[in-house]
Amino acid sequence: MTGAAQTARVASRSPRIDGDRLLTLVCVGLPLIGLLLFFLYPMAIVFLRSLTTADGSYGLGNYAEVLGSSGFWRATRHSLIMGGATTVLSVVLGFVIAHGLYRCAFRGKRVIRAVIVLPLLAPSLVQALGLIFLLGRNGLMNRFFGLEIEIYGFWGLLFANTLYALPQAVMIIGAALVLLDARTYEAAEVIGATPARQFRDLTLPAARFGILNAAFVTFTITITDFGNAAVIGGDYSVLATEIYSQVIGQRNFNMGAVVGIMLLLPTVLSYYIERQAMKRQQGQQATNAQPFVPLFAALRDLPMAGLCLAICAAIGAVIGIVVYASFVRLWPYNLSLTPRHYDITLAGGYSSLWITILISLMAAAGGTLAVFLLGIGLRRLPRALMQPIQLLAAMPAAVPGMVLGLAYILTFNSTATPLYLLYGTAALIAIVNFYHYHTQAFLTVMTGFRQLPPALEEAAGSLGAGMGRIAVNIIAPFVAPMLVSVFFFLFMRSMVTLSAVVFLTTPHLSVAAVTIMRLDDAGLTSQAAAFSTCVMGVVCIALLGMKALLAYLGRRSAREKAD
Amino acid sequence: MYLTVRNATKTYGTFTALDDVSISIEQGEFVCLLGPSGCGKTTLLRLIAGLTDLDAGEICLENETLSALPARKRGFGIVFQSYSLFPNMTVAENIGYGLKIRHVPADKIAARVRELLELIKLPYLADNLPGQLSGGQQQRIALARAIAVDPRVLLLDEPLSALDAKVRADLRSEIRQLQRALGIPTLMVTHDQEEALALADKIICMNHGTVVQAGSPEELYHRPATRFVADFMGISNLIGTAVIRDVQPDLLSNRPDGTDDAYVACIRPEQIALTPDNNGPATVRSIGFLGNLRRIDLDSPFGPLVVETHGSIDCREGQSVQLTITPEACTWVANDDAGGAA
Questions:
Q1: Of A338, A358, A379, which residue constitutes the final position of a domain?
Q2: What is the pLDDT of residues A513-553, one digit of tens each?
């Protein structure tokens, strides 16, 4: 209120208010136009196309046809079973690791933390590739133990999906576990609760929302993931591969749109419930919490350490074997090492890697700027305007990448609008990547803005600084760590994502994850491994760069505080 | 002796948190551990609770040695500064939790919880979750939770520090009444000397991991053993031996033997009498009005002095005054805190 009053007072003396208004308009307007044009509009198109029948009229004919086909129901059933099984497995394993990390005392937690994020640094189909090298027909296990494991299909896909979903489950459950501080446990201890009771009465209830949240997130990740299903799913068709075969295989865009809308329903529902659960959890956050420091208890910690290490060993083995196999001369017959698979023989060679780096940089830079502008602009908007925009900005997370990609091809591959000019350009792929991960980027920046004390801005405003100056001098340095995180998050996701871009690549423009899939399709598995290793290398460098930059920013702000 | 700690020592790396500390608590006694932050008072409380292990020394309750007993088997109650209620349990479930663990029948638990909620004057909150309550309410419930199991010792770790001034004063007197009514031996950690003076039967004043002085609030206030205690327990005028010898040698009469540096004189501000006198040796520098009393800063032959008087006194800033200090008003304290103005 004081801020508004001040603005009004300043307005009577100077034309600044107009400048600020204009800046607010630009800050909100540009990102908003982006959201409308590159998210809402394509989503409307995909919806319309799902209602467009073969003769060009509108109707529910496509739905009737899809719902009447046994293939769709089989894929739906498979998707739900796979989603459910993966959710159970990754939440259980995720809880074990999160509990080990935050509630047990043993060495090597840094290793576990490092290994657990590995699947996030690779395209999702790398888990599938690794499993094939390990357990496939020519895998190490079958070869050396004379087994006959059949990895393609349900079990292979289950393991690949679990590995892919596990990092998220660990992070979400871990965040819930650290909510309970040390004093709460000590109070229970002094009251007389045994460690087992403390686990049952404190830890489990505290983790409840985290577990629920993790379950919805892993379910969504699993049913929307395309990479693993494409590589290791075999005959086990799921909705994501069903969309792909409708669109790419049969060029049946409208039917693909219908399946896409069907895939959208459970993810929207699950996203909504997840957001509600998050709100409940945030309400419980304690102030001045003392972090819990577990003391060593052999009976609890030794088995937990063993379990955590075993899970991490599995993740490490699956990812590591891809790197190893990329250097093996002839898998699995001649295990001597050679760099020859790094000579990519598929048309285009490494060009798709370079273009992916370029695309990722564009998505990261443009995306970070867009969410930053939106964040600044939203602070100046009245609540009635702010809330619908916030809702819109948080929506893309509910849309599976496959559906967004399909929406893009339907929208931008149509010559009806000038937007057609974007089709087949790297810019469009950068745009789809940004809007695919818009929600996470937006929420991260908003979290940063929430920590900005309003008094700081008001003080600067009352000293006569305009909105632009405040944004550059006050807000940007304060939210810099968030912006760095957002930039690298968008970069790393853009490097590895497959589902949204799979429809947007053309014979002249491919991205890294699609190249890996094509190499694998062509039977050049070792080259697929080599290409994957290169992608992981780039992402790892980006991750280290982010850590270094964040550490630098942290040191700088610590120094400023000390001065 | 009900609870005794003998020769307790605790180090964290090179930092000695407790250095050969011995204390005791009588049955029904309210004891305050008082000292600045980092003096070891919280470490001592946590050792007694069993939340931290001793390096050396011994803790006994009546004739039972506690040192090897885990915290959950000691039968104590504890209240932390941060309330630390169980966030997923209602107020009633929080208070009844200790009884539930002890397999008390549900109807007995319900009755006991009702009784305690009456006692802390919050009977209407039974079904609320802690997150919805104010700090003062949460801390009352934490207190009820701690005493629900009839603890053998009640441990309070700065229970009032996180509360607003008004709530703090209310809860302070409630804690005192409860403790008196129930007769539970209580050990409270605080860095607030006023709180300690108001609550304690016995104050244990600590500094640098050792006990500096233990005794009744009156003892610590009027007969501090050391300069540190005199300084920590309210305002005091600390005057060096040489100055006293020059200005008013009769105050030396009760001084223990020792070098000039070994002891300093401690004179409480309310024990100095002032009379306006144009030929008086001291001058009023400033007068602070504190409602029930006035705090007057003087320039005197002793150096700067603080004097507190009740009621009105006829003097202005710049006025000359006569000082009256009786030898009884002067306590000689060991100069443990060498350096600084005396």
A1: A338
A2: 999 999 998 888 999 999 999 999 999 999 999 999 999 98
Whether A7 shows a pLDDT value over 50: the answer reads no
From the candidates A179, A190, A200, A209, which should be mutated to test the interface with B, based on the most B CB atoms within 10 A? A190
* Average pLDDT of chain A to the nearest whole number: 86
Q: Which domains does chain B have, with CATH numbers?
A: 3-222 (3.40.50.300), 236-334 (2.40.50.140)
CATH number at residue A20: 1.10.3720.10
Query: CA-CA distance, A437 to A401, in Å (whole number)?
Result: 9
Ordered mean pLDDT values, 10 residues apiece, chain B (342 residues)? 92 91 94 92 94 91 88 93 89 95 95 94 92 91 94 94 89 91 94 92 94 94 92 90 90 87 91 88 89 89 90 80 90 72 35
Q: To the nearest whole percent, how much of chain A has pLDDT over 70?
A: 94
Residues linked to residue B97 through DSSP beta bridges, in sequence order: none
Q: Residue B163: its chain A contacts at CB < 8 A?
A: none
Q: Are residues A371 and A269 in the same domain?
A: no
**A160 and A263 belong to one structural domain:** yes
Query: Are residues A206 and B49, on separate chains, in Cβ contact within 8 Å?
Result: no
Interface of B with A (CB under 8 A): 49-51, 70-78, 80, 82, 84-89, 97-98, 101-102, 131, 142, 145-146, 149, 155, 162
Question: Tens digits of per-residue pLDDT, A17-40?
Answer: 677 788 888 889 999 999 999 999
Joined tokens for residue A339: 């760099």
Closest alpha carbon within chain B to A289: B82
Tell me: pLDDT of A1 over 70.
no
Q: Do A183 and B49 touch (CB under 8 A)?
A: no
Q: What's residue A250's pLDDT? A: 85
The reply to whether residue A206 touches residue B78, judged by beta carbons under 8 angstroms, is no
Q: Decide if A191 and B145 are in contact by the 8 Å CB cutoff.
A: yes
Q: Are residues A440 and A302 in the same domain?
A: no
Of B45, B68, B56, B73, which Cα lies nearest the Cα of B20? B56
Same domain, A224 and A333: yes
ipTM at complex level: 0.85
First-to-final CA distance of chain A: 33
Our count of domains for chain A comes to 2
Contact status, residue B34 vs residue B232, Cβ threshold 8 Å = yes
Inter-chain contacts counted by CB atoms under 8 A, chains A and B: 82
Check CB contact of A306 with chain B, cutoff 8 Å.
no
> Do A386 and A334 reside in the same domain of the chain?
no
Q: Which string of DSSP letters, residue by residue, matches A98-152? A: HHHHHH---S-HHHHHHHHTGGGGS-THHHHHHHHHHHSTTSHHHHHH------T
Q: Is the dihedral of CA A343, A344, A349, A351 positive or negative?
A: negative
User: Within this chain, do residues A506 and A526 fall inside the same structural domain, yes or no?
Assistant: yes
**Minimal Cα–Cα distance from A178 to chain B, Å?**
13
A52 and A65 share one domain? no
Domain span at residue A438 reads 1-56+347-563
> Is there a single domain that holds both residue A29 and residue A146?
no
* A189/B72 CB distance under 8 A: yes
Q: State which of A338, A355, A376 marks the end of a domain.
A: A338
Helices (H), A348-475: 351-379, 383-393, 401-412, 426-436, 438-450, 454-462, 467-470
**Which residues on chain A are in Cβ contact (under 8 Å) with B74?**
190
What the block records as the tokens of A389 is 């925009």
**What's the angle, vertex CA A204, arms to CA A198 and CA A207, rounded to 5?**
130
